[in-house]
Structures are given as structure tokens and as C-alpha cells.
Amino acid sequence: MKRSELREQIFKMLFRAEFYEESELPQQLALFFEELDQKEEKDTDYIQKKFEAIVSRLSEIDAMINEAAKGWKTSRMGKVDLTIIRLAVYEMKFEEDIPTGVAINEAVELAKAYGTDESASFVNGILAKLV
Fold this sequence. Notes:
mainly alpha, 131 residues
């Protein structure tokens, strides 16, 4: 899979995690991989490692988002937008091999594909404040 396709799969898994208890996440991850078409072991390893890394830092990521999002808290954000922002913040702050501009651009593209009409500008605005 291309990097953007991997990112989209990670987004989908992170979104799924919003609806389950932490103890259920390993089972959800296994189900996710069963449903995933055209998977290679290197891709599933990448998705799983990145998913687990993001989940392990959610409180830290959410704190950054809450500080940057004046008038908005993560508890008020739509789950799609929040999931996209979390993924992008992780890439911007904790992955040195992904340029900030790429993380933001990919997040905006995900927001266009999965969010509301306002999602792309909302996601872009929040992420721009974190640069």
C-alpha cells in the first residue's frame, strides 16, 4: 500500500477505537485486519504499530489539541474530525520522517473524504495552530 492508503487505514482503525473500551481494542484490531483487502504483512505491521503508538499518546495529543483549539475542546469535536486531527498531530509531533506540510495536507484530504463540508477547513485551522 502507498503511504496515503496506510494513513487512511490507520484513520479507520482509530475511528473504530472511539466506540470500544481499551480492553476490546486488540479484538477490534484483529477484526479490522480480517476485513482489510489486499494486505501484506509489512502493511499490517505498520498499521498496528502506528495505531498503538497513537493510542498510547492520546492524552498528550488531546492536550495539544485542546490548547490550540480556542473555543473548542476535543469532547465537543465530531469524531471524524477529531480522529483525523489526532492522526495528523501524532505525525507532526512524533514522526520525524513525515514533513508537517504532508501531515496537514493528508489530514485535509481525509477530512474532505470522510467529514462534513466544513471538516477540511476546521481540520486545517486546528493543525495550522499547532505548527
